[in-house]
Amino acid sequence: MNGEDKSIDDFLEALRKSGFNSPEIEAFAKQMISSGPLCDTVPNAHGEFGYEKSNPIPVHNPNGEMAYLRILRCQCGEAFDFSRVGSCGPSPDGHLVDEFELVCKTGTHKITLYMDMYHLGPSSLVPKGLKKTDG
Questions:
Q1: pTM to 2 decimals?
Q2: CA–CA separation, 119 vs 24, rounded Å?
Q3: Could you tell me if 43 and 30 lie in one domain?
């Protein structure tokens, strides 16, 4: 089993533990996780990249969300502490969008970002005003 399959299995297990344990929901979730293309922006997106749910950051699965957020830096170069607020409706291509709150390590910058985890990989773009590390 590769790391990608393990992260999908972990996600499905979390769904089961949350009470979403029907075969139909599992099949739908599995299909949705691998259904979007590798892209820098979600098809039909509009608005400010990453800052509006109408233009979420495309990534691959929950681990992809975490990996992308870990490499972001605020305007002063600090890493962020972040937490998932929850899902907030569909993206322009029909996937669920996750909302995250980020606060830089100094507490100076607090932002909200939106992500679509149902794509084949992470966007190479960075939301306006932010930086990313190499790692």
A1: 0.76
A2: 20
A3: no
